[in-house]
Structure formats: structure tokens, C-alpha cells
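Section 4.2 – Deliverable D4.2 (structural model, holo form)

The reporting period included a commitment to supply a predicted holo structure for the target in complex with iron/sulfur cluster. Inputs used:
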Amino acid sequence: MRGLATVPSYVVMQPTTLCNLDCAYCYLPFRAADRRMPVPVAEAVAASVNRWAAAGRFSVVWHGGEPLAAGREHLAALLAPFGPEVEHHVQTNATLIDDAWCAFFAEHGVRVSVSVDGPRERNGDRVTRAGRPAYDRILRGVAALRRHGLPFSALAVVSYPEPGLATELYDYFLDLGCDVLGINIEETEGVNTRDNSHDARAVTAFWAELVAAWRREPRIHLREVEWSLRYAGAVLEGTADGLLPRRLDPIPTVGHDGSVTVLSPELAGFTDVRYGDFSSGNVLVTPLAEILAGAERTPWVGEFLAGVEACRASCPYFGFCGGGHAANRYFELGRFDGTETAHCRNSKIHLLEGVLEHARDHQSPAA
Ligand code: SF4
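Output (C-alpha cells):
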């Protein structure tokens, strides 16, 4: 795996910067402002995306802010330029989902991923702009999805891994009815400066406990555990070298104003005296395909690729991780060519260790 691919597997779009919630761990800098994406931005992105989608599976992920805060009419206008082969996804806090939104999702074939951190008492960081708990509103949205028979994924943020939490979360999400679950250990990035360093034992034990809970009743696709098991299986079969893509997926994020930031949506909207605004171009000026063809020339991207090579040379987990995320390096280390971060310890190194610990603890005596 060397350098950036010129064709991504998906594009992240920001229909509005606004979010109707004010979660304590949020990284977004402009979430109180409603800066909406004009339709010509979507038209410009669709010109490249429709060609890519004609050649194979391709997704557009509507992220935010809170994407549903853009309103149904505006979101429909932004979806309109994309061809029928394009898969649409929304990452939403679910608080605005009602019957009308469910009809919209069904009509446009939009797949929904809901952010919820587990049972009510685990959602203390999720509050409205008035500072009130958002949990009941989140659950009302989930209930609407279930009423309409719409499948959904869930994404949970874990701020403090502790014994018992993984089992509690897994059982909660089994009841909630999601078919895919992703777990993010809270990250220090963007405007969230809360410390994300944890005791290594606690994080490893959290992941090991999550594998045990999943193996009891493996009804949900558990994103992190499935990645780890795929990697462990490939190592045993001697095929792990083929798991990483030949080139890094650039994962372009198209901001509300058409600016394109590759590799890490979390960098969009920030500026730095050394790196400028992190963008590699604007789709209102240059076609997205052309921006991506030249993205490696963006100064910070070159520095990041040097960091990936440093990881390859120094980290035994590189084959699993592939070199980590640009935003975590920048917000934790202040530059892109460093290697290990608290994020990669929490979400790659201790994840793999936890899965292996579970396997060691449960291997048969004859093995
Ligand atoms: S685990 Fe961390 S240090 Fe290792 S390859 Fe990934 S980002 Fe680099």
C-alpha cells in the first residue's frame, strides 16, 4: 500500500454545518451555524461520482453537522443530481427522524446510521442546544425507523472503557434492533480537547469483553471485531499482506462550500499557519476527479504519507492498521508524520490485543 488512490470508494458530503445537538465530545467547529450546501456543489460532485458508480459499487455518506437539519426539501435537491446506482447513507443523531423522514429514506433508498451511546445513563454527553438530555428524542427517532421496518446501523462513542461496559452495550444494541454496530473510543480531535489516553489494560479488557458478548449471540455485525477477526484469519492463512488496499482510499469530504478535504473529515473547516485550510481544491472550480488526481501534492498529505511509511517501518500492527488517521496525528501530535497516537492505541493496538486475548482465554485445552 503506497500513496493515495485516485478513485475513492465513497464520498462524504456536508449538507449543512448545523447540528441541533451540542454533544460534549463533538469535534465540529461550526455546528451552531447553518451554512448549507448549495445544489451546484452536489451537481459538481455528482459529475464525477456518477461515472465511478457506473463502474462499481459507490456510496455517498451525508454527514454533518446533523444532515437532517438541512431539511427534506433541500436534501432531496442535493440528492437529485446523483444517478440511481449511487448508494446514499446518512449519519444522524436520529432526533429529527419521524414518519415523514422514514418515507423520505424509503423513497430515496437512503441507509441510516444512528449515533447513540448505549442506555440512557451512558448518553450524558448528548444534549440539546438548551443543554437538555437528548436521549428520549434519539429513541423516538429509532422507534420511527423500527415502525417503518427500516434497517439501521448504530455508532456508539465510549468515553471511559470500564469492566462490564462492553457487555452492557452489546446487550443494549441487541435490543435496539440495529444490524451493524461500530464502537468509537472517544477521540481528541477538532474542538474536542478532552484527554483520550486510557490505561492499556482497561482498553484491551473492554475489547476482549466485547468479543465475548458478541460470541454469545452474534446477531449484529460488530465492525471492529469483524475487522480484527478478518485480519487474524488472514495472518493464520498467510494472506494478511493482501488485506490492505494497494493505495490508500482518499475518502474525500466535500464541505458545505464545495471545498474538498481528503483522508479525514475531521480536518474540514480547520486552518493552520503551516497547512492552510487542509483542502485540496473546490469542486466549484475543479472537477472532483481532477482534485483527487492531484491530492498527493497537498503539502500536509505528503507529510502524512511520510508518517504512514514511518508506521510501516516501526509498528508491528501496521498490517492491521495501515497507518492510522490523519486527523488523530494532527490533533494529538501537531503534525502528520508522527506515528503512534492515543487513538491508535485505543482503537487499533488494544483492539487487536483484546481480540487475541479473548482467543487465548477461550482456546480449547487440546490446542
Ligand atoms: S497502530 Fe498506530 S503506530 Fe501502528 S501503524 Fe497504526 S497508526 Fe501507526
